[in-house]
UniProtKB/TrEMBL annotation:
Any one GO cellular component localisation term in the record: cytoplasm
Record PANTHER family: LEUCINE-RICH REPEAT-CONTAINING PROTEIN, PTHR48051
Source lineage: Bacteria, Pseudomonadati, Thermodesulfobacteriota, Desulfobulbia, Desulfobulbales
Domain of life where this protein originates: Bacteria
Organism the protein comes from: Candidatus Electrothrix marina
Annotated protein name in UniProt: Leucine rich repeat-containing protein
Amino acid sequence: MEKKEVIRRIQEAAVAGKKSLDLRGCRLRELPPEIGRLTKLVHLDISFNTLTELPEEICQLNRLAELDLSDNHLADPFPVISRLRSLTSLDLNGNQLRKLPPETGRLTGLTHLDLRDNRLSEIPPEISTLKR
């Protein structure tokens, strides 16, 4: 999907006050900063793309509860993700994670965390603060 088309879909969703957006399999290499305009978003699926990082603007999605980032090329999305305090479900299956930073423990509302098919070598003790 062309970047212009993605931006158009984001802008339309923002104007309509959408609570869910599906950008799964859109061949995105980057997420445009316009994503920050979706302040009412609760569910975001950006799986099956080729993202290597997330823009700072995603932190503006303070209502976001479900984030699917599976099957991308993310190595360290946590500086941004750790500020999404409303997250209850985070899917990072099939990325290139090597470690989880201590900031992961800040996501105290998480009830679902999928880390399968990554390259994790260690898990920080802070993850024990997450709900089971």
